[in-house]
Each structure stands twice: as structure tokens, then as C-alpha cells.
Specification:
Elements: E1 3-10, H1 15-21, H2 31-34, H3 38-47, E2 51-56, E3 71-74, E4 78-81, E5 92-95, H4 98-110, E6 116-118, E7 122-123, H5 125-134, E8 144-150, H6 160-175, E9 182-188, H7 205-217, H8 227-234, H9 241-249, E10 255-266, E11 269-278
Parallel strand pairs: 1-9, 2-8, 2-9, 3-6, 4-7
Antiparallel strand pairs: 1-11, 3-8, 4-5, 10-11
Helix pairs in contact: 4-6, 6-9
Bound molecules: 3,4-dihydroxybenzoic acid (DHB) and fe (iii) ion.
Length: 285
């Protein structure tokens, strides 16, 4: 059977793509951010996940304001990233796993989640930048991906508790897939940031720290927050925390934090990184 081997949550700021394209990783501005990643890459090299299931929010590349699903699951053989106008190179094509996608879709619908199913889907920076951060060498990424989009663009948005339950349902779907696959679940976005309006530049370190701790030990503490509470605390785009909450849901009840990093700011964003693994009770005797 397939299993979730871990959960990685990371910010997805487009400027990261520019820094990589210009090899700025060792510059003082970027170093504290990029230094967060080697331990996560070492874990990925050890665990070698076959598949990445990626919760992210599309920013207008694949869905626009006239046509926005609350939840959407990719069901294609591959997914292409395209130029979105951030001045970063388009990052190419990612392999899908349409059979696993359809299994997840069927399982979700049986569990009373009704996602849009996308047999054609472009993936934006929120998918491509984290893939580039986790597997920087071309051709080293997982053999298949399943993109899952959660709407954070146009209200009404699904609640934190709904997104957590979506993640739990995806976790159950993976665990019921008959193939022997190691799956890493990725959540991208956040942490606190606001790109426009009177509070542009808003960052809330205390709330971000609270979220990172709660995601490890007690995710239920985040689930009573309304989206208005989250926007007030984390900023209008800080609502992308919903991706981290969904990804955490797929891990099951108890998790252990294997690595974390937090650096402020990258562009307008508090950049967070979390690597969580399912808690395995020590073997007796
Ligand atoms: C920035 C952050 C984002 O999450 C995003 O999607 C685009 C830009 C930023 O801080 O620049
Ligand atoms: Fe974003």
C-alpha cells in the first residue's frame, strides 16, 4: 500500500526563482533562507519519495476570477509551469500520476469532498518554486506529482477546519492506494504576508511561530480560527497558511518535527519551512 512518509511546508515567493536564476543563494539577503533547505534535501535523498502530492493556491495562471473551484485535483500525465510575469524563468514540466490522481479523486468524492478534476492544468510559482527548492538538480524530483489547488484568491474561501479535513481525506486516500509508494505531502504558501492595501508589508512573527508549533503538536488549535481571524493575524495573503493546514491533515494525529526554519522577510513574506514526519511509537523490547 502507499504511505505518507512526511510533510513539507514552505513559502513560495516568486523572487526565490529569480535568486536561483541569478545564483544569489550565498548573498547575505538570501543565505539565511536557502540555508534552511539542505537538511530537508538530505531527508528527501534518504527517503526518496516516489510521489509528491502538492497543496498549493493558484494565483491566476490556471484559474481566473471568472472560474474558480474551491478545491481542484490535477489528473494529468504532466503539468507545465509557464511565465507568469514575475521575471523568473518558466520551470518546465512535471510528471503526473494520473492513476493515483483518479484514486484520490474517487476517494475524496466518497468522503464527501467534491473537487474539480483537471485533466489539463498549468502549475504556477506556488507549485514550481517549492519543487525547485526541494529538488534543485533537474531530473532528481519525484517520478510523479499530484497537484491539489485550494482557492485563496476569491471569497468565499474554505475554512481552516475544512482544509484540515480535506488533508485528512487525502491521507486516507493515499493509505488506501494498493501500489507500494512513498508519498511526500507538500503545502506551499505563507507564512504571514500582505502584498497590498493599507497593511501591505504586514508580518506577524508571534503568530507564525505559534502556527509552526501548533502544526507539529496540536493542529486542532488552528482549526477554530475563521478566515477573517487568519487574515487579521497573518495578512491578506497569509491566508495561504490553509495549504500548510491541509498538508498537515494528511499526516495523521501525531507528528514529529524533523527540521524547521523561519526567516523574515523574503520579499514581503515571512518565509517558513517545516519538515514533519508521522510519529512512529518506539518498538518495545
Ligand atoms: C510574494 C508572496 C507570495 O506568496 C506570492 O504568491 C507572490 C509574491 C511576495 O512576498 O513577494
Ligand atoms: Fe502566494
Amino acid at each position: 500500500m502507499a504511505r505518507v512518509v512526511g510533510c513539507i511546508c514552505t513559502s513560495h515567493v516568486p523572487a526565490i526563482g529569480k535568486a536561483i536564476a541569478q545564483s544569489l543563494q550565498a548573498e547575505p539577503y538570501w543565505k539565511p533562507f536557502f540555508d534552511g533547505f539542505p537538511p530537508v534535501r538530505a531527508w528527501l535523498e534518504e527517503v526518496k519519495p516516489d510521489i509528491a502530492v502538492v497543496f498549493y493556491n493558484d494565483h491566476g495562471l490556471n484559474f481566473f476570477l471568472d472560474n474558480i473551484p474551491t478545491f481542484a485535483v490535477g489528473a494529468a500525465d504532466s503539468y507545465r509551469n509557464e511565465d507568469e510575469g514575475w521575471g523568473i524563468p518558466a520551470l518546465g514540466k512535471y510528471p503526473g500520476d494520473a492513476a493515483l490522481s483518479w484514486h484520490i479523486i474517487e476517494s475524496l468524492i466518497a468522503q464527501d469532498f467534491d473537487p474539480a478534476t483537471c485533466q489539463r492544468m498549468l502549475v504556477d510559482h506556488a507549485f514550481a518554486i517549492p519543487m525547485q527548492l526541494l529538488w534543485p538538480k533537474p531530473g532528481t524530483g519525484p517520478g510523479g506529482t499530484v497537484p491539489i489547488v485550494i482557492n485563496t484568491v476569491q471569497y468565499p474561501l474554505p475554512s481552516a477546519s475544512r482544509c484540515f479535513r480535506l488533508g485528512q481525506a487525502v491521507g486516507r486516500a493515499i493509505a488506501s492506494y494498493p501500489e507500494d509508494l512513498n508519498v511526500v505531502v507538500i503545502g506551499t504558501g505563507g507564512l504571514s504576508h500582505q502584498l497590498d492595501g493599507a497593511r501591505a508589508g504586514h508580518i506577524n512573527k508571534e503568530f507564525d511561530r505559534f502556527c509552526m508549533q501548533a502544526l507539529e503538536k496540536e493542529p486542532s488549535r488552528l482549526l477554530s480560527y475563521t478566515n477573517e481571524d487568519l487574515v487579521e493575524a497573518a495578512g491578506a495573503q497569509g491566508i495561504e497558511l490553509l495549504m500548510w493546514i491541509a498538508a498537515r491533515g494528511s499526516l495523521g494525529e501525531s507528528a514529529v518535527m524533523l527540521h524547521s526554519n523561519y526567516h523574515v522577510p523574503i520579499s514581503n513574506t515571512a518565509a517558513g519551512l517545516l519538515l514533519l514526519a508521522p510519529f512512529a511509537a518506539p518498538v518495545e523490547g
